[in-house]
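Hey, can you fold this one?
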Amino acid sequence: MNNILQTWSDWVDSRNKIFANPSGFLSITNLVWLTNEPQEITGLSGSWWADGDTVHVKESNTGDHAWAIEPRSEMTFDFDGIKVELASRAGQLVVRPRDPNSPMLKSFESVLTFDYDEKFRIHAQLEKSSVPSEVVVGSVVEGMTHAYVSPGALSFEFEGKKYKLTAFDKAGTEDVTIYFKDATSGAITYGTGRSVTAYAQADGSYILDFNFAGNFPCSYTDFATCPVAPFENKLDFLVTAGEKKPIYRFTVDGIKSQVA
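Sure. Predicted structure:
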């Protein structure tokens, strides 16, 4: 048990580093969907627009530029003294300034978690489909979807009841990713769900440890395009393990409390 507690403590430390990253998600100060009409973006110089798969900026502090963005990809670069991310999402191009002086980043102290609880470390089995399938899930952005490859469903038993969760491939491994909601979602934990990795074991089984369930970036900010958990991945019990809902989130109107 001591080893897993140390592993969990290290995971919490790694999560804190992710969210404290000066060019990470909490540094994002805006999310702008580009059209073919030039527009100004707060915090950036010049006029920005999209033409097909190319982002253009004219009359910026560093001159005129154009960047081609592959579908469902992103790139980040230095611009006007900060980082700027260009991304292709749902067939549209977006701009996200990443400022190390973001008020959300400055307000971040640490992720909030439940204490480690061994009962949420569960042995599971992967019920593989005959062929992997593409599963489309919703997004926090209205009208947008995300598509993932699913090898099948992860089945397990908890407190005498059987459950199945749609699993998604984790690139380059036999491990799988689970997006899920539970009876804490929207109250103690964030409403659109959390993500956890189930790790493949030598005997073909899986370890599903909800103590390592983490929040999506959208739990902290409006300026994200995160997926939401599939409808069928709603658990009817309280998963009082993993990360809790953050106290604050960054909105178009500034930092707001989201905890009563």
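The helical segments are 2-20, 103-107. Let me know if you want another pass with a different chain boundary.
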